[in-house]
Amino acid sequence: MIHRDIDLIYQGTAQVEAPQLEAGQKALKEYVDFVWKLAQGDEKGYDYDYFESLVNLPLDDNFKNTLLQKIQDKKNEELKYILVIGIGGSNLGTMALYRALRGRLDVFLHANDPKIIFVDTVSPPLIAQVIQFLNNEVKGPEEIIINMISKSGETTETVANFEVIYDVLKKRFGDKINERLVFTTDKESKLWNAAEEKGLDLLEIPEKIGGRYSVLSPVGLFPLGLANFNIEVFWNGAAEMIKRCTNRDVFQNPALVSAIITYVHYANGLNIYNSFYFNPELKSLGRWYSQLMAESIAKEYNLRGEKVNVGITPIISIGSTDLHSTATLFLAGPKNKFTQFTHASQKEGSPQLPGDLFMPDLVSNIKGKSITDIMNAIYYGVKIAYLKNSLPYSEIVMYDISEDSLGQYLQLKMLETMYLARLLGVNAFDQPKVEDYKRETREILKKL
Questions:
Q1: What PROSITE patterns has UniProt attached to this entry (predicted)?
Q2: Which terminus in the chain has less CB density within 10 A, N or C?
């Protein structure tokens, strides 16, 4: 396989000058060095004693080999379906990679690969449909794996969905279904201890790896490995990006550059971050990144305990679909948004319009053009419109959409988020306010 780096482009578009980049580099020098040192490991291998140890996942051969063996152990020829029961960081990364690479017609075009079914919220219609599916389509326990994922082991939505699904399958297949259960959670969580007591399969999430940073751990890659994705290539792409994004030279470090650009524009009042993907299959990747940015950056207090109420609002746009609904807002509305375009031209295998059109007078200059040509024309047209309207943006260019490029993208955005949080003076790894609604939910359930 040929490795091609994804590139961050910013000159002439994002309103940031070299001195600002150099100032950001100086401010983050010690932190970048710290992350770089973690990624080197030591004579004993890699440890997971720090939140930033997430950079070790693509580099740690012991961890990777253990997960690959677990996937091999749980795979069988009859496997058709993997039920992923999780929410937020336990679900979004897996879904992003699955939908990016399998597309909208997965059920029709990948007949020989197991399908992942995401059960990610307590929606009555969704759960009713899942129950119907399990009763009508699953012929035996060997056709399914149920992967319940909860870092804390106490996520209300996840536990509720699991219990409903387990009850359906237990009534159909008896205790045999227990052999098809895998629980991914923190070691010694309530879920871990309960599953261990029952002798069920477990996968450990390292304690310091937060849910939104866990996509390259068993959280994301165990179900994808079962579904015949090449998870080693995800790791390879991420490992290459770690080398680039722990470089001390800001001009050689795309995560550092992107973090500084976002910080400068936020300081100038642009508090909305528009992730604009010109590949519709990346829409779920945007949802993954929205959680990463929102939970990591939005904080009531900074690292010194001062009340700051920092936050950047992430939004997702899809090209060219959303140009027909929100382009006026972006081009003529308030200038409070910073945009990062992401585009993979995907020239290879692009369908082509015929030279002899059925209705040739509707749109000029499209006959004989490829679908890639048309999307590229729209994409460059949007960038020119942004320039003419003095709207700042940066750009991520992918050669293709593959395990390699997506592994790079995930790691780039995680490191960028860590650096951005440091520039803003907040903790990238906690989310204290998330507990507010969870606490209130538990109190309401007591009273029902």
A1: P_GLUCOSE_ISOMERASE_1, P_GLUCOSE_ISOMERASE_3
A2: C
Do residue 224 and residue 281 come from a single domain? no
pLDDT in tens, 102-139: 988 887 788 889 999 999 999 999 999 999 999 999 99
pLDDT tops 70 at residue 11: no
In a domain? residue 45: no
Q: What is the pTM of this model?
A: 0.94
Let me know whether 286 and 399 are in one domain: yes
Q: How far is CA 383 from CA 14, 215, 258, 319, 340, in A?
A: 12, 31, 18, 12, 11
- Tell me, yes or no, whether 222 and 288 share the same domain: no
3-class secondary structure per residue, the chain: CCCCCCEEECCCCCCCCHHHHHHHHHHHHHHHHHHHHHCCCECCECCCCCHHHHHHCCCCHHHHHHHHHHHHHHCCCCCCEEEEECCHHHCHHHHHHHHHHHCCCHHHHCCCCCEEEEECCCCHHHHHHHHHHHHHHCCCHHHEEEEEECCCCCCHHHHHHHHHHHHHHHHHHHHHHHHHEEEEEECCCHHHHHHHHCCCEEEEECCCCCHHHCCCCHHHHHHHHHCCCCHHHHHHHHHHHHHHHCCCCHHHCHHHHHHHHHHHHHHCCCCEEEEEECCHHHHHHHHHHHHHHHHHHCEEECCCCCEEEECCEEEEEECCHHHHCCHHHHHHCCCCEEEEEEEECCCCCCCECCCCCCCCCCCCCCCCCEHHHHHHHHHHHHHHHHHHCCCCEEEEEECCCCHHHHHHHHHHHHHHHHHHHHHHCCCCCCCCCHHHHHHHHHHHHHHC
Question: Is 443 within a domain?
Answer: no
**Which band of pLDDT confidence, cut at 50, 70 and 90, is reported for residue 285?**
very high
Q: Do 224 and 342 have their domain in common?
A: no
**Would 227 be classed as within a structural domain?**
yes
